[in-house]
Design a protein that fits this description.
The chain is α/β, with parallel strands linked by helices. The protein has one domain: TIM Barrel, CATH 3.20.20.150. An eight-stranded parallel barrel has the order 1-2-3-4-5-6-7-8.
Length: 284
């Protein structure tokens, strides 16, 4: 009897220890590398820049090398670049120049590899806006085919693409996580995965269940408050139901804050503390 009680007590101690040491998702922030020092002092170790500032073919080789030098001098790591395609370069619809798109992407991925940036977020709302009345089924099928080619290019350079659903005020194609998940599954490539952006989900009133349904194809996450894309904690939005959904799929990747700031130096530490508290509540 005593041995049995000791065994049960030992199991309880191990269980409590595992729960208390459970790994939480790591926090990052989408912001200019110019804010590196402020963000590092605020406790952030990873940030996200833009393709236009760091990797775009529009940058000369000299400008790109200057960007790489600034990366090496930074205290924070640049994990991802967003704003992939410029608005005038259509990636879906009846005006897609596929060769131009792939040539552009090849340079971006090549430069990302050279700069040590492992991920590119594919949102690009204007580039993927469909013409009025365009067949959404055809657009989806065509976009999956193009994305397969983009994924193969990304794989060549060991870079990952994270497809992002954008809310319907920003684009009219792929406006829910469920739609984005369908495309990621259609592409079916290890270098083409899903970005669960909780801000866009909130704007579209999309349930946390969509995160659970997407499961392991989610490898990246972004977040901001619903009404005005304010930083977490500004109004006090409750993200816990969405974070619990991430816990349910055993998500341990990055959650990047991509919000609006008035005073970054003051507000970044507040946002970090707020998110840490929400994560502890959700993952406990």
């Amino acid at each position: 009897m005593i041995k049995r009680l000791i065994t049960v007590f030992s199991i309880l101690i191990i269980s409590v220890g595992c729960a208390s040491s459970q790994q939480l998702p790591k926090l990052g922030i989408a912001s200019s590398l110019k804010n590196d020092s402020v963000l590092y002092q605020s406790g952030f170790k990873v940030i996200g820049e833009t393709v236009g500032n760091m990797l775009s073919p529009k940058l000369s080789n000299e400008q790109f090398l200057e960007a790489v030098a600034s990366l090496k001098a930074a205290q924070c790591q640049v994990y991802m670049c967003n704003s992939f395609f410029p608005g005038e370069m259509k990636i879906v619809g009846d005006k897609v120049d596929e060769q131009a798109v792939l040539t552009f992407a090849d340079t971006v991925f090549s430069r990302a590899s050279k700069a040590g940036i492992p991920a590119i977020v594919l949102g690009s709302g204007s580039a993927r806006r469909l013409p009025e009345g365009y067949d959404v089924k055809k657009a989806t099928e065509d976009f999956i085919l193009l994305s397969k080619k983009l994924a193969a290019l990304a794989g060549k350079y060991k870079v990952k693409i994270f497809l992002e659903a954008l809310n319907s005020t920003e684009t009219n194609f792929i406006t829910t996580l469920t739609q984005a998940a369908h495309i990621v599954r259609g592409v079916n490539h290890p270098n083409f995965k899903l970005n669960a952006d909780i801000y866009h989900m909130l704007k579209e009133n999309e349930s946390p269940q969509s995160i659970v349904d997407a499961g392991k194809i989610i490898e990246y996450c972004e977040i901001a408050e619903k009404d005005e894309r304010t930083y977490p904690g500004f109004k006090g939005d409750d993200f816990v139901p969405y974070l619990k959904a991430l816990k349910k799929i055993n998500y341990k990747g990055y959650i990047f804050i991509e919000g609006r700031w008035d005073d970054l130096k003051k507000e970044a530490p507040l946002a970090k503390a707020y998110m840490e508290a929400q994560l502890k509540t959700a993952y406990r």
